[in-house]
Amino acid sequence: MKIIVCYDISDTNIRTKVSDFLCNYFYRVQKSVFEGFATNKELDKVIAYLEEHIKNADTIRIYKLCNKCDQQIELIGSSEQIVEKNFIII
Question: Strands 33-37 and 27-30, how do they pair?
């Protein structure tokens, strides 16, 4: 499923750790917004990590997009649509 993760984290050290972690799973599309695809198992790992590192004053939002919603994303500017890569294992 397609995932969008965005955050508002005040502590620079925590923000950097969260950002570096998210880069392992998703593409950065803006400074505090990541987009990509994840299985339920991968998303569970991401959520568990984020819950461990976030403070009460911070916010992380995770949006799960269905295929129909994903097709309705409109982009303005130089950004590119993030598409799921299909792999063939031989």
Answer: antiparallel
Which residues, including other chains, have CB under 8 Å from residue 42's CB and lie 6 or more apart?
Answer: 25
Long-range contacts for 23-27 (Cβ within 8 Å, ≥24 apart)? 27/82
CATH of the domain at 46: 3.30.70.240
| Whole-angstrom distance, CA of residue 22 vs CA of residue 12 | 15
Per-residue pLDDT of the chain (90 residues; tens, 9 = 90+): 899 999 999 999 999 999 999 999 999 999 999 999 999 999 999 999 999 988 888 999 999 987 776 666 666 776 666 666 554 455
